[in-house]
Amino acid sequence: MAESPPSPARPPLAGYRVIDLSSGIAGAYCTRLLADGGAEVSKVEDPGGDPLRRWSASGAAIPPDGDGALFSFLACSKQSVVADAGSEADLRRVRQLLDAADAVLWSPGSCLADHPTLNPAAILRAHPHLTVTAISPFGLDGPWSDRAATEFTLQAWSGGIVGLGRGAPDRAPVFVGGQVGEWLSGVYAAIGTLASRARGLPGGGGELIDVSTLEVLSMSLTYYPVSFSDIAGRPYRSVRSVPTPGVETASDGYVGLGTGTGQQWADFCVMVGHPEWAQDPALRTERSRVAKEIHDWMADHSIAEIMELATAFRIPCAPVGNGASIPAAEHFRARVAFTPNPRDGFLQPNHPYRFTPELLRAPEAAPRLGEHTGMSRPRRSSEDFPAGDRPLPFAGLRVLDLTAFWAGPLCTHVLAMLGAEVIHVESPSRLDGTRLLAGLPFTEDRYWERSGIFSGLNTNKKSVTFDLADERGRQALRDLLATCDVVVENYTPRVLEQLGLDYEGVKAIRPDVVMLRMPGFGLDGPWRDNSAFAFVIEDVAGLTWLTGYPDANPHSPYCLGDPNAGLHGLVGLLLALEHRRRTGEGVLVEAAMADAAANIAAEQFVEYSAYGTLLSRDGNRGPAAAPQNLYPAMAQDGDESWVAIAVATDEQWKALRDALGSPDWAMDPHLLSSDVRRSRSDLIDGHLGEWCRARTSEEILHELWGFGIPVAKVMQPHQQPELPPLRSRGFFEAVEHPVNGSARHSTLPMRFSNGPARFHVRHAPLLGEHTREVLTSLGVDDATIRSLEQARVIGTSPTAATGTS
After folding, report:
1. Where are the beta strands (DSSP E) in 716-785?
2. Distance between CA atoms of 47 and 692, rounded to whole angstroms?
3. Helix (H), strand (E) counts: the chain
4. What is the pLDDT of residues 334-370, one digit of tens each?
5. E strands present in 468-595
6. Single pTM value for the model
7. Of 156, 565, 729, 753, which is most buried, counting CB atoms within 10 Å of its CB?
C-alpha cells in the first residue's frame, strides 16, 4: 500500500484551539475534521471517558485498557483532558481551557456538558470571545428542545424514512442505516464553526451556533419537498417502491443500476436484450411485469460483466460494497482511500478531500483517557486570526458556480446564504438538471422556471448562460473566471479538461484561485470517468449495504450521496480559503463523492478491520437502541400510520414498561439488559405492535413522550412545516418568485447568534437573468451582447426541449 503524502509544515488551522465538550459521533466527527485541518483539539471528558471509548456496533469486547475502534478513528490528532463536574478545581481547569481557546464544540449528555456553568449560553457569557457550536436533536430552544430523541426517531420526524419511497409497498418503510444524521450533523457543525471564524468580528467577538439534527436530516434525507409541493401543488413522491432495475443480485453479489432518464431506460432495454420494452409507454413508470426477466438476466451475469456493459451504455452502475469488500476494491486501493489507524492499526478511511498543495496533517494517534490532563496552555493570541467587520461570513467572496443537480449547488448555496456572490453558469442548450424536475411537460409555459427543487437550491445566486460549445461562450467564461475568488464544479473530470479549464488552466487565468472539484470517484483511479449519481455513490461506499430488510436486497438511500458530498466539499473549500488568507496562494481541492461517503460509512470499515465483524442491515432495528422499530398505529381516514419507537437506555426501558401499564410480558427482569432485549426483539415487537395498533399516532406520542421515551410519527416530507420545532426556529422562509409566486424554502440547519436573521434574500434566478449585468461588468458592449443573444450563445430560454421531467 502506498504511503500517505507528508503533512504540510503549517496546516490551515494551525494555532486554532478547539475544546470538545461533546459526546457521540456528531461532535467527534466535527472536531476530527477540524483537527485534520491543523486545529489543536482538546477533548474534555468525564472521569469515565466518552461512551464512544466503550462502543462497538457489533458488540465486540473492548479491553479495559483499550478503546473502541470507532473512537480511535474519530479521536485521531486530539488531546484528552479529564475533568470531574463535581470538582470545583476541575471546573476551574475547564474554564482556563476555554479562556485559552478559540472555539468549543458542545452536545448534551455528559456530566460536564450538563453542568449549569457549561451549557452553551453560559459558556458564551463567561467567554465572549468563543465560537460556541452546539449540536442537539431539536435545537437549543423551542417547544421540543427537552424531549428525548434518537437518530431513528429524528429520521421519522424529518420525513426521511418515506421521503424517496424507500421500501416495499407491502412492508414497513425502512430508515437509512448507519447513524447518518450524527455524521452529517458533525459536518454542518464544522461548516458553522469555520464560517464563524471567517466572519472575523471586530475584537475577536464570539457567537453561538445552534445545530439541529432534525433540521440536518430534513435537508439531507429529502429533496426540497416543501418547495416542490408549494410550487407543484402536490408531493414529490409519496408511495414506497422497489426500483426496477435497482439493487440487483448478480451471479457473484449485489450490483446497483439506475435508469433515471428515458434514454437510460431505452439503453438498458437494449443491454438486456429487450429493445421492444422501450416502446411500451406503461413500462416507463411501472415495470413489475418485466421485473422477473430483469432479475433473471442479472443473476446470469457477474458484477464485472454488468459493470462493463452498463459503462458502455452509459447507464449508472456500481457494485454494492460493504465493510469487507470496499477497502479491497481496485479503485479505492489505487487511490489509497484507506489507511492504517496510527495507533491501533486497523484500516480507516483517508481524508474526505485532497489538496494541491497538500494542506492536511497526517492523522496522529488517538489519546488515552486523560493523557493530557494538567498540561499548561498559554493564553490565546489573536494576532494570526482574522479581524474585520463582516455582517455575513462570506461577504465579498465571488464564486463561479459550474455545478448542477444537488451536490455542487448545495455547496455554493450555503456560501450564497452566508453572503458570497455566487454566479451560477448554465448553457441555453444544457440546463441544470434540477430545472427539469418540476413534474411538468415541456409544453408548459416556462417549465424550466417552475422547479421547486431548483428554487430551493439556488436562492441568492445569480444566473448567466454561456454556450460552451462556442468559442465566444468559452471566452466569456474565462473573462468571468478572472474576476472570481473561487471556482466550484461537479462535472465528470473530462468535461472541464476538454475545455482547458482543469486546475492548471484555471490557475493560469487567476493564480490565487481556490478551485473545488467534486468528481464522483476522484481525478484518478480506474473508476475516474464513471457516472456518479447519488445512489451509485451510496452503493459503492457502503451506505446502501446497511439500508433495507435483512431478508431482501439492500435499498439505496437515494439521497445521501449528493448532500454529503456537497457539505464535505464545502469544508475542504473553507480550509483552502483559510490557507489563501494566510499565504495568498491558490489551492486545488479535490473532494470525491465516494471519499466523502466512505467517511460517513467509516464504522463498517473499522469494525470489520478491527474485529472481523461485517455489519449489515437489519430493517428498522439498530445497535444503539432496543427495542427499535416502526409500528403501525390505528389507521385514520384509510391512510396507513406508523410510529417510530427507540429505547436507547435501560432507564428508558423501565419508563416504557410504566407507560404500557407494566404488563406481565415486559416485567421479566432479564429485559433490563439491552443485550437481552435485542435478542428478544421479535417478542417485544409483537407486543408493542399490538399496543400501538389500538391507538392513534397522536395518542401514542402523548403517552410515550410523557415518560421520556424517544418516539416519533413517521411523517411525509412535505409535512415538515407542521413540526413545532421547525416552525419556532424559522426553518422555512417564504420566498416570492416572479413565475411561481410564494413558496416556503428551507434555510440552514443551524442558527447563528450574530445573524443572519433571514437567509433567503432573493429568489432563485431565472435562466440567464444576470447574463447582461455580468457581461457589462466585464466590459462587453451592448452590440456584442445583442450579437451573442442572436447567435444563442447566451439566452434566457432553452434552445430545445428534450422530453418531459
Report:
1. 732-737, 741-746, 750-752
2. 41
3. 28, 24
4. 999 999 999 999 999 999 999 999 999 999 999 999 9
5. 486-489, 514-517, 587-590
6. 0.96
7. 565
